Amino acid sequence: MRSVGRAMVPVIRLGAIRRISGTERLETQVWEYSHPLWPAASDGFSVLFVSDIHYGKLLSHDQFDRMTGAIAALDSDCVLLGGDFGEDAEDSPKCIGLLAPILRGRRVIAVPGNHDLCGAVSRDALEAAVRDAGWEMPVNRCVPLTGGAALAGLDDFREGTPDAEAVRLEAQDASFVLFLCHNPDALADIVPPFYHLALCGHTHGGQVTVFGRPVFSSSVYRGRYLTGWKRENGADILIGNGIGTSLLPVRLGATPQIIKIVFRRGSAGRKLAESAVYGPGGKKQIVGGDNADDCRRG
Ligand SMILES: [Fe+2]
């Protein structure tokens, strides 16, 4: 399947096909997220969540440039990278090397995805690239985020050695736990959750969907963790569509996404404050304002 995908690249990049391909769009979302346990002194703290870049032969220069342009345009206190930097473990350190100067001066926290850990290159190469970039990669552990809030990171569910109970122990003193976890399938077994909000990727929003259902699913739970906001066992989950593609350079009904979250201390709820779509011509269409989604829980 992977060789078929690579062979399709020149065809997909032809003008007319490129214009209708979902890979050539990028949606940015800015969410206001409020929670009663978020530290009051860190009201307004923000993170930018980017995952599943899949740098390699399936990712065009335009896709990469569109992503880096959006990252540069969206300031934040911290950048969270949710894994699958490369198409395989050889491409992942290359992607990190390209992103490092673009993200210089910003705090960056990353976790590995399954594509970062499969192939001939060892985990050492990934860790060295992260270290050289000056980023943090908390695997099965927590790091302070802001105020009393912690950022918890998990190893990849499929190719790594996730240890959620070790994370739970480290997270117990934090007032709020933001969980960075590549594959949302890991969440199903973390009961009760030690986190308040989990940010995940991996599913690519289904990548190719028909009537909202994925043609192929990378999740054992199929539609349960497909995309967007969920709430399970009293905790919030946000699954982003990611940037690139795996196996085939095609997206349908699963627009690439970069998501910014602005945290507020307050009653539990969220509101889509702004949304924009970058197209093949670089056009930016603002969708926010009157179309904003507001969800407030009791
Ligand atoms: Fe992925």
Topology:
Blueprint: H1 2-12, H2 15-20, E1 26-35, E2 46-50, H3 61-73, E3 78-81, H4 91-102, E4 108-110, H5 114-117, H6 123-133, E5 141-146, E6 149-153, H7 164-171, E7 176-180, E8 197-200, E9 209-210, E10 213-214, E11 228-232, E12 235-239, E13 257-265, E14 269-278, E15 284-286, E16 294-296
Parallel strand pairs: 1-13, 2-3, 3-4, 6-7, 7-8, 8-12
Antiparallel strand pairs: 1-14, 2-13, 5-6, 9-10, 11-12, 14-15, 14-16
Helix pairs in contact: 4-6
Fe (ii) ion binds next to loops.
Please explain how this structure is put together.
With 298 residues, the chain is α/β, with parallel strands linked by helices. It has a single domain, classed as Purple Acid Phosphatase, chain A, domain 2 (4-Layer Sandwich). It contains 7 helices and 16 strands. It has helices at 2-12, 15-20, 61-73, 91-102, 114-117, 123-133, 164-171; strands at 26-35, 46-50, 78-81, 108-110, 141-146, 149-153, 176-180, 197-200, 209-210, 213-214, 228-232, 235-239, 257-265, 269-278, 284-286, 294-296. The strands form 3 sheets. Strands 1, 2, 3, 4, 13, 14, 15 and 16 form an 8-stranded mixed β-sheet that branches. The chain has a 6-stranded mixed β-sheet with strand order 5-6-7-8-12-11, covered by helices on one side. The chain starts with a helix and ends with a strand. The model has no long low-confidence stretch (mean pLDDT 91). The structure holds fe (ii) ion. Residues 52, 54, 84, 113, 115, 202, 204, 242, 246 line the site of fe (ii) ion.
Give structural attributes.
298 residues; alpha/beta; Purple Acid Phosphatase, chain A, domain 2; 8-stranded mixed β-sheet; 6-stranded mixed β-sheet; 16 strands; binds fe (ii) ion
